[in-house]
Each structure stands twice: as structure tokens, then as C-alpha cells.
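USER:
Working in pairs, take the chain set out below, taking as long as you need, and write a paragraph about the fold.
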Amino acid sequence: NFEGDALDLLFNELGIGGNEHTNYLQITIDKGSPIVLALQSDVAVYQIARNLSKGPHSLEIFKRTESSVGTVEFLGIRLSKGFGLVAPPILPNRKMLFIGNSITCGFGNDTIIPGNLNSGFRSKNENNYNAYGAITARALEAQYVAVAYSGRGITKNYDGSTTGLAPTFFHEAIPDREEYAWKHALYVPDVILINLGTNDFSAERQGFGKIDSAAFVGSYLDFIADIKKQYPNATLICAVGCMMSDWYPAGAKHWTRIQNYVQSVAKQRNKMGDTKIHYLKFDPQNPPYGEDWHPSTATHQKMATTLVHFIKQLNIW
């Protein structure tokens, strides 16, 4: 919250620009219509508002784009002379954490691709504010953090590599930068949703070796044990969907297999006495799609509706 009739924001854009590496922020004043800000590496000061009314105003800054686009340094706020910040809004007591890949990032959700669905990634069309996790958190009046990176998996990434997997970047404030370790005690979630595995199977589809069910389940269980070590009282939801199917690639049964694997993970944890582990299936998506066959905002809304209902049934809060 701030006072004054004018507002500038200062950022250092470390993305290199272009279609894939321009960061987009969403700036909202007094819960009005959002201002979409495309950052530029040679610009530090962004004029946001002038001639605001007297009295206090609220400000929300939301980074729409994921870390692969580039890091953003928030350098501060510039207000009218003689004015300053006032007491901030009280944050919700509820806290949620979403761990995932491009689906959780909101890859390509801010557009509809009617023709060539292998359209490639354009950062302007990624809007994490309208991804299912953020929608769910707002619906449940909870704080929201997403730890997600396009193309990453549990045992293999989309390109077949095995570095920078989700169990690794889970511990990093900036992915692939070990020197920036995330301090888990700073944000202790009540509910954690994991939606991973799509890229492991994508690597299989591209010829990087068939997934071994025991290795996948074992790695997933190790990851959950690590998460529980950080957040022992959290409720975990192990989710699958919404981009996989049994019809492509033919005969591979990816959709059936990932459901079996992740259900096995949840059941094994339950047998260990962990009653705060649950399995959730998001329905496969339907057209229209966003970029590169990714879910549209409408599909993200459907996923959020499913998740909100599921969480309410658990009576966590």
C-alpha cells in the first residue's frame, strides 16, 4: 500500500529480449484493470500511474513469465515527493505451493492457436496469473507460490537430460543457480500440489529411453520424502494431467501408465502411515489449445474448479 498521486516502478530486466526472453509483469492498482508491462533491458524506470486520487492505494506486482524467460530484479518504488508506503494489506493465513512444469507455469495459455499447434513459445502468451494454481489459490483465499519450470521432469527432462530436475530446482530460489538456495522456512505451505511426469514421458516419446516404472516411482517417493522433510505437516496432492493421452504415441499408453505410477506413489505413502498424501487426476484437455498443445486459460479454469472442489472435500482448513 502507498500514498501519493503518482507511481513509478524500477526493475532490472535480465532476460535477453525477443519472443522467448522478454519478461512480462502484471501491475494492478486498487484492484483495477491490470497493466501489462513488457520489460526492457535498457529501461530501469517505468511510469505506471499519474493523477491518482488522494488517500492510500494498493499495488500488486505479479510476474507472468517463468524463470526460463529471464530473471527480474525489483529495484524499488518511486512515489510523489512527500509520500511513502503505508501498512501493507494483511496476507491470507492459508498458504499453497505448486510444483510443476509448463502446465503449472501457464505456458501459452494467453492465446488460442487455431492452426499450426506446434507454434513455439512466446513469452507474451505465458500468463501465470491465469494458470490453474493461481486461480485455485485466489478462489480459496490462500497465498500462492509456484515452483515450476517448462520442460523439466522427475527423472528426465523434455530433451532427455537429467540435470536441473524438479527435485533439484525445488531447493533453488533461482533455478539452475545453486548459490541462490531457497530458505524453506520463509514460506511454509499448508497444501502442496505436485503435477510432474509429462516431460518424463515426452522424453520417452522422443526416443530417450523407456521409463522404468520402478525408477520413476522410486524417484517420486524420494522427492516426496524430501518435501515432507521441509514441510512435515503439509497436505500433498499428487496430480496427473492434462496434456497426456493413450492415443499418442500409439500403443505407448502414456496416460494409463502415469496414472498407475502416481497412484502407486500415493498408495505407498499411505501404507507408510502418511494420511496427508492424495492422488488427483485432471481430465485430459480438449480444444481449443494454447501454444504447442498446451492448455488454454479456459482449460486452466476447469482444472482449478476441479482442484478447488477436491481440496474442499479434504476439509484441510
Remarks:
- The mean pLDDT is 96.
- The longest strand covers residues 72-79.
